């Protein structure tokens, strides 16, 4: 099955600084790469996704980059705010497209 | 709330008892997934339905676990003879047809086996 590795597991940044979370995957057939944000006790919610036909996507302070050759993708959050504090999960779809494989999560703390 | 809903939100059961969880997906979504999440980990895939057909099951899904989606709408996940290791958050998600579209998650059912 797919192996998704995510780093770092914890990340603390000062408010206003940038945060970068990186993931690698193993299945070259994966073509969809979502990022989920999960606040304590709440459901995972999609914040941004990217498909394999593009290398970068941006939505306000959030951007995702994808390097299919190297099989890695990254989440970039600029001008971080305390409400960005949460656990972030990267994911990829399986070669059948029937499931998602998740990383182990990054706990982001934005220090006011 | 027109999102994915799960019931119950919390369940405490004694070891050896059976439990059943329910998931109501977003109405126009024909794909439904069950995931399990333990503390400090990402969601782990359990099983997947396309309409009423269960098309994929994880090796994590032992014989004590069974899932159904009888009419292609809501789904149930049953765990028989629960063990302490079954304690986790059980998440349901749904999506539209293509495998590269967003999966919407429910709030989850937190199971505690004592």
Q: Structural class of the secondary elements of chain A?
A: mainly beta
Structural class of chain B: mainly beta
Give the overall average pLDDT of chain B: 92
Strand content of chain A: over 45%
Mean pLDDT of chain A: 93
Largest sheet composition of chain A: 6 strands, mixed
- Helix tally of chain B equals 0
Please estimate the helix content of chain B.
under 10%
Alpha-carbon distance between the two ends of chain B: 32 Å
Choose one word for the global shape of chain B: globular
Which percent range fits the helix content of chain A? Answer: under 10%
Task: Note the run of SSEs of chain A as H and E.
Answer: EEEEEEEEEEE
Shape of chain A: globular
End-to-end gap of chain A: 40 Å
Cα gyration radius of chain A (Å): 13 Å
| Beta strand count of chain A | 11
Detailed description of the structure:
The complex is a heterodimer of chains A (112) and B (114). Helices cover 0% and strands 54% of the residues of chain A. Chain A contains no helices and 11 strands. The N and C termini of chain A lie far apart (40 Å). Chain B has 114 residues and is mainly β. Helices cover 0% and strands 49% of the residues of chain B. Chain B contains no helices and 11 strands. At the A-B interface, strand 4, strand 5, strand 9 and strand 10 of A face strand 5 and strand 10 of B.
């Amino acid at each position: 099955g797919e192996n998704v590795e995510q780093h770092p597991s914890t990340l603390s940044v000062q408010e206003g600084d940038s945060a970068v979370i990186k993931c690698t995957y193993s299945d070259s057939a994966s073509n969809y790469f979502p990022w989920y944000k999960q606040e304590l006790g709440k459901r995972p919610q999609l914040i941004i996704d990217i498909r394999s036909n593009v290398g970068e996507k941006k939505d306000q302070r959030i951007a995702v980059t994808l390097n299919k050759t190297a099989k890695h993708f990254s989440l970039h959050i600029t001008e971080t705010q305390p409400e960005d504090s949460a656990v972030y999960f990267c994911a990829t779809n399986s070669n059948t497209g029937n499931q998602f494989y998740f990383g182990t999560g990054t706990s982001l703390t934005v220090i006011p | 709330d027109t999102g994915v809903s799960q019931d119950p939100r919390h369940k405490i059961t004694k070891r050896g008892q059976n439990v059943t969880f329910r998931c109501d997906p977003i109405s126009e979504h024909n794909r439904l997934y069950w995931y399990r999440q333990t503390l400090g980990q990402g969601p782990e895939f359990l099983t997947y339905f396309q309409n009423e057909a269960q098309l994929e099951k994880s090796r994590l899904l032992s014989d004590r676990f069974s899932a159904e989606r009888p009419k292609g709408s809501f789904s149930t996940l049953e765990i028989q003879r629960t063990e302490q290791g079954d304690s986790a958050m059980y998440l349901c998600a749904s999506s539209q047809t293509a495998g590269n579209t967003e999966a919407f998650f429910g709030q989850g059912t937190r199971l505690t086996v004592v």
